[in-house]
Amino acid sequence: MKMMTMPNKDVDDMYSVHGHAGNLCRASIMEGLEKILKLRSSYQADQPICIADFGTADGKASLSLVKEVIDIVQTDLGQEQTIVVYYNDQPMNDFNLLSKVIQGDRQDSGLSGCSNVYPVIVPRTMYKQCLPDNSLDLAMSAVATHYLSKQVCRIANGVFMGEADNNEQRLMREQGKTDWRAFVIARGRELKPGGFLVSLNASLNDDNDETSHVDKGNHNLGKFVSDMARDGVITQEEYLATNFHSHYTRTAADFQEPFSSTLPEVDKLGLELVSVKSMKHYLQHPLFDIVEKDETEKMEYSRKVVASVFPWFHHVIRGGLSFSRTEDEKQMIVEQYFNRLQAYAFAHSDHKPYLIFTEVVIQKCI
C-alpha cells in the first residue's frame, strides 16, 4: 500500500478542518466576544482590539475563526476599528509557513484582505508571559496545552504517557500541573479587565475516555514504533528517543486546580473560572458512518486517518531519529511509519475516530 508521506494541500486534513478544537469552542468565543464589545467604553474607541491565538502552529486551523472575530468586531465598532492579532508558538515553529497563511495566496484568503488588521508573530513559549500586562481582549488556544514545556523523563517502554510506568507518569503529571498553572497566570496578566481566555485542551472526559484516532486507542500509534525497532528499521536508541512529551490525560479537576487550590496570584489577578466542559467529538466524514466498507472505501478511510494523525505526530517520529541519518533516510522511515499506520487503519476500518477535549473559559474581572 503506497501513500504520500506529506499529505498534499488538496487532501481533506481531518485534524485541521473537521477536528480542530478552535471550531468546537466557537460558541464560547463568540459569547465572550459579545461581552467584551458590550463592556467597551467610548473613551476606548481609539484603542485597538487585541486577540491572540496561543499555540497556533501554521495558523490554518484557526484562520476562519479569527476572520469571523474580525468581521464581528468591525461590524459592531466600525470598519475603521484597529485590530491586532497575535500569533504565538514556540521559537522552533515554522513561522515561514505561518507567515504565508496569514498573508494568503488569494485576495480573499489569509488576513491580507482585512482592513485595519495588524498580525503580529510572537515566538515564545506560551508557558511564560508573551504580551504586556492588561493588553489582551480575547485569548484563544486549541489543542496546545497538552504539550509539556520540557522533557521530564524518557518513556522507556513506549512513546505515549499512557505507556509510561508509574514514576514516569508521576513526573509528567507534575510538570503538566506546573505548566497549566503557568499558562493560566501568564494569560491572566495579559488579559485586560473584562477579557476572556477560551482554551480547548486534549484531555479525558467524565467517562475517562481518551482520544482514539485508531482502533484500540492511540497507544497503538506507539506500537508501530516498537515494531519498527523490532524489525530493524530503527535502532533501539532511536526507539527510546521517540517520545510524545505531552499530558493528554488531564481531568476537569486538573483544569480547575489553579482555582480550587486558591493560588494567591490567581486571586490577585482577579481571574474567574467561568466554565469547564468536556466533550467527545467524532470526526465528521461520510466514510466514517459506513459500516460495511468496500476496498475502495477502506483505502480512502485509511488515508483520512493518516491525515488526522500526520500533522501532530510526524515530527515526533523524525525527532527520535539519529542525527547521523541522512534526510533521505529520515524521510523513508517517516513514510514507512505512516504506511504501517495506514495498513492498520485499512484493516480496522470499522473504527470511528473521536477526539476528547475539555473547554476551559476564564474571565478577568473588571
TrEMBL record:
Methyltransferase: present as a keyword of the record?
Answer: yes
The processes (GO biological process) annotated in the record are:
methylation
Q: Which UniProt keywords apply?
A: Magnesium, Metal-binding, Methyltransferase, Transferase
**What SUPFAM superfamilies does its record include?**
S-adenosyl-L-methionine-dependent methyltransferases
* GO MF annotation: an example: methyltransferase activity
The signal peptide, as residue positions, is: none
Keyword tRNA-binding among UniProt keywords: no
Q: What is this protein called?
A: S-adenosylmethionine-dependent methyltransferase At5g38100
Identify the species of origin.
Mizuhopecten yessoensis (Japanese scallop)
